[in-house]
Each structure stands twice: as C-alpha cells, then as structure tokens.
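In practice, a research group might receive sequence data for several interacting partners and want a quick structural hypothesis before committing to experiments. The following worked case mirrors that situation: the sequences arrive first, and a predicted assembly follows.
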Amino acid sequence: MSATAPRGADAAGRDQAMAVIEAAFARGQKALSEHQAKQVLAAYGIPVTEEIVVRDAGELAGALGHLEFPVVLKTDSPDILHKTEAGLVALGVRTAGEAEAAFERISRDARERFPEALINGVLLQEMVTGAVAECIVGMKKDPQFGPTILFGLGGIFVEVFEDVALRVAPLSPADAEEMIRETKGLKLLTGARGRPTADLEAIEDVLLSMSRLALDLEPYLAEIDVNPLMAGPAEAMGGWGVKAVDALMLLDSRALEG
Amino acid sequence: MTDIYEQLQPIFAPRSAAVVGVSQDTWKPGSSMLRALLRFGFEGPLYPVSSRGGTMMGLQVYPSVESLPEAVDVAFLFVPTQSLVDVVRQCKAKGVRGIVAFTGGFSETGTPEGRALEEELKREFDGSFRMIGPNCLGVYSPGGGVTQHPGEAYSRRTGDVAFIAQSGGLSEDFSRAAPNFGFYCSKVVSYGNACDVNEADLLEYAGVDPATNVIGMYIEGPRDGRRFADVLRDVASRKPVVVWKGGVTPLGAAAASSHTGSLAGSVEVWSALLKQVGAIQVGSFEESLDALAAFHFLPGLSDTRIGYVGAGGGNTVVAGDASYRAGLPLPRMSAETQQKMAVFLPPVGASTANPVDVLAPMPSAPELKGILEAMAGSGEVSTIIVDRIVLSKELRRLMHYADQTPVEDEPWLSEIPIDIHRSTGVNVVVVLREYLDPNGDFSVEAERLRLREYYQSNGLAVFPTAERAFRALGHVIARNRKGGAS
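A structural hypothesis for the assembly, expressed as tokens:
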C-alpha cells in the first residue's frame, strides 16, 4: 500500500542525521535550514521534496535539468525561519526564464532584508502535485515527559481551530492511527466532497518515524515543524503518499553545555 | 513480588512502629498520631519517642530512636524541620526499614533554606530504607492497621481501591469519602515532597498489590515524568487507573508550584499521555470517586447498551442528554419489550422507548418489578439505571407519596433492584438524589443514607444524579472497550 521508505532509521540513518546536526552546531546555528532539516527527515525515511541548493546563478541551469517544471524557489537559511512571510518564496515557476528572475529576486531580497543572516543559497525544489490535503507533523519537548509528537491538518485547521492530536513519544502504531482518526479534519483525508482518499498508512509511517527521530536525537533538537506535509493518494503523488514540503528544526542549545 | 512491594510493605503492613516526636501536649501532631494508631487498632508493638522519656497513653516513651528495643518496621516522624535529617540518620543507623516523614518546611516553602535542607535529606537515601514524605499526611492502610494523621476515625474495613495523592488534604478527604461511594480502601497515600518514594513507585506498588484492583491518583506534577509515564503505561494496561491532574489552568499551575514545589505539566500533554496509556482522566474529586466506584462495582462492563428508567418528562429527556454526553446513547427498546413494559405503566403519558418514563416517582412494587423485569429480560440492555423512583415505603411516607400509592402490603419494594440484578445478571445502578426534603428533614436524609448503604452492600453502585452515573459508566465502558478489560 504505502510506497514510503522503511520506517525509522538504521544506524547509518542516525549517523547521517547527526552529521548534519553537528555541522550546524559547529557553524553556531540555532536552527537548521530547510534543506538541512529535510536531510534529517530523509535520514529517518520521511519522504521529502526533491531539491537542490543553488549557490549562484551559474549553477541554476544545471540544477533545473534535474527537476521538472513547475518548480519552487526559496531562500535556504538557518536564520530565516518564516520564508513565506518574508516574501522569499516563489511557487509555481514554469520556465527557466521565470526561474532566473525568481533566483535573482530571492537572492537580492534575502541579502537586503536579512544582512546578518547566514544564507546557504536558493533552494530549488519540485512542486508537489496530486495531494488532497496539507498536514502538519511536529515535535516539541515537554519538560516532564520528553518529546511529544503532534499531528494536524494544516492551514486554518491548525492555526484557527487548533485541531491537533498530541502524543508522548514513543508512539505505537495504534497511537499513530488514533492521532489521525481523532482530528476533525480527517474527512479531508478520507474522501470528503468527492476528493480522492489520502494514503493514511503513509502518514502513520511519518508519525512513527518522527517519534523515533525525536527520541534518537532528543538532546539536540528542541522543536520540529514539518509544515506542510502534503498527503494524497500514492498513485497521484509519484508513488509517495506523503511528502515534506517545508521543515523547520530548532536546535537545543543545551546539547552544547553537557 | 517485585522489589518495590517488598520495600514498601514495612510501611503499609508494619509489624512494629515508632512515633518520633511525641509531645507532652497531647493535641500536638506526634501525640495525636500515637493516639490515632492506638484507637485505630494498630496491633504490633508501638513505641513513642521523645527526649523527655516517661510514659504516654500507657506506653513507655523512649528517649531516642537508638534506644528503641528493636529496629522497627516503620517510624512516623513528627520532628522539627531542622532535626529531620538527623533523625533520619538515626533511623538508618538503627536499621528502621520504612519512614513516613510528616514534617514540613522543605522545598514546598520555595525558600533557599528549605531547598537546601531537602537536598541534604536526599543524600541519605541509599536503598537501605524507604521514606514517604516529607510534608505529607502519611498512609492509610486498614489491612495493616495503619492510619494517617489524623485518621483515627477512618473505616477499619479494607477494600480494593488504592488512592495515591500528592496532596495530604485530598488524601484525607478521599479516605473519609470512599465508604459513602460504596467502596473501601486498600491503601491511601499522601506522598508530599516525594524525596524518596515518588508517585511512580507508589503506582508500581499499587499495580502489583494483590489487595488493589482499582487505582486513583491525584497528581500536580511528577518527580520523574519519564518513569511515571512508563509505569503508568504498564499499570494501566492491567488495572484501571483514574487520574485527576491538579493545576491545569495557568492560575492553577501557579498555585501548584508554590504548593509542593513541583512543576506542573501542560494540560494538552497530560491529556495526550493519559489517553495514550489508557488511563482514565477525570477533572474533580466527585468524578474521581464516581469513576472508582463504577470500576469497583462494574469492573468488566464493556457493553454500551444502557437502559434508563426514570420518572417525569423533563427528567427522562435530560437523562437521554447525559447518556449521549457520556458516549452511551440509549438504545430504543424493541416493540415487544415496550409492550411488555406498557402493561405496568399508566395508559397515558408514560414512555416505554428508553429512556423509560414511568410518569410519577411512586409506581407500585408490582409495577416497578414488572417494568424492570421486562427490560432486564429483553436481552436489549446490559445495565439499567433506576432514577427518581422513591424506593422505600418509609421514604414514600416521609415524602408524602404514601397517600398516592398502595404500599402497605409491599414490604419488598426496596429489594426489587437487587432481585432484578440477581435473577437476570443485568447490572442495576441506583440513583438516589440528594436534597429530597424542602425542610431539610433529617429523617429523609437518614432514610436516603440507609437505602444507599443497603444497595451498595448488596453490590449495586449508587450515584446522586443520573448525569454522574452515566459519566462514571462511560469511563468504565470506554476503558474496557479499548482492550484493558479486567
């Protein structure tokens, strides 16, 4: 049913994730850039968008050769956590010319508006199609119980209605299933108003992987937002029932103290 | 048995005990604890300790822990804050196996001195003994002859419900209230600052205690959240654990941190955890007791089909609402069952569908019996809630219903709910409402209490409102349907 990668990470996956995190600490980062965060997610088998960090205009044409239009361009920086609000995202880019213009604009605006920010480049990524709903999957450390995992339908469901399900890690498969079933937005995933049905098992896999990731990397990570996680029928999404389109990971500075 | 069980048995079932810090003023805490233990009926050797020596309440007073003739199983400490660490060291040197430290003045004060003293105390724990407290009201373990301070009037009867409370006052309230709900306690613990034995240890103990079938907890913030979550996950899969979390509003949380110096968790995470591990989340003292009573009386109930028999249109409508809120919508009775019930009901105004409305609260005994028999015999309900029916001849007389119904020749009216349960196996839950008399007539209240005890002692759960009955049954059914059936 689900086309996602194996659940969780093996030792190699954990090492991969740790390499990203250690490099970020070494550079004095307080958060991971979107691309770094996605490398950590991918190390734990969570499907992420195909993407390439483009450092200068000369690399753009080559990078575009690896992706199909339409594409998305975003600034990639650990210091700019809300790219959309800052106008540093271009969606639905359909031609090489549009991509060049977007690259120039985003590079310039990011430097001008965030002169202090560490900027890795512009992230060129596939535009995910075929999803029926945007979800949010998150992690937050509770001072008493440790990592907690959050699931909700994205957009107004989480922002306005606070319609989210929460559990304390580790999650069991039954917990993951229950979390999805208890959100009121469930109907959006199960065919409401003639929509296709999303791959709920793929979402469960993401929740279980997130639980493992959160416990494995607990000392280093303070909070995670995967928002949005696009969800849809696997066959309409290139074989993936889910895909992390944006991700935010805040590092836990206390990890350096010990 | 597990380690924790062996370690805490000297506190819950001590063979010998000392009360350290008795005063010549017999009303002071140490002295009143000694009196409470004597009156409660502690059977082992009991040694008061005070530097003054002499005798007290007919017992020889020993000048120090060291001078005791034996290493007691448990020492109850009522010594000044500054002396507690020293007395704990003396107990340790003597080989005392369990300590209950009532003394306050530690981290709960929020002062640097209090915290420093508590840290000093914590350094004494090396596993050679276990301690409950400080800053607590101790343990009530009727099977072990031990009571709280001040618990000399608690019931001597032992039961199957344990209650673990971070708050002393609530542990006392619980111990006093339990028999009113028809169940008795196996163990009640006020654990105070939990410097050694904490909420997770006590929950683990209750989980393996063969005397305990049902567990209630009042908790503000655990000492070790991760271990508590692990233990709760394990115990809740075997026994019902009803958890009342205090300090769930920003204001409540502020009071919690000054109350016991604990960190209160966020509301959402607590709810998530309790749901996840299959514990029962409640929000008040009454809801705790109601749920525990329901688990005590109806431990295996998982069948959602509830029948309601009440009196009056409004009452039956709101009972239907309450059933729905509790997740137990009432199933409509079949036409056949409705016909059988209709024989015993007034031709106009009554309702047989479920909720069943018998119209007036004083059906005759044959009518009541006929209605309940028809419902219980139908196979369409697992449980019947009987509400607002005046269930004794005496209560009908006191409430001036007697002149509206022939009851003189029906001495068996009160027995009907019990007979129905025994003859059909269908559960019967009785609602006995409070505030029955406009003049606060004590004889009405006395008759209500007599009936309550009568039903409870015959194995029927009794609640003061239908709303609370539905809510409590909802907790039991939800847990048992989730797979944790006992």
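Before designing any experiment, note the following. The longest helix of chain A spans residues 96-113. Confidence is low (pLDDT under 50) at residues 1-7 of chain A.
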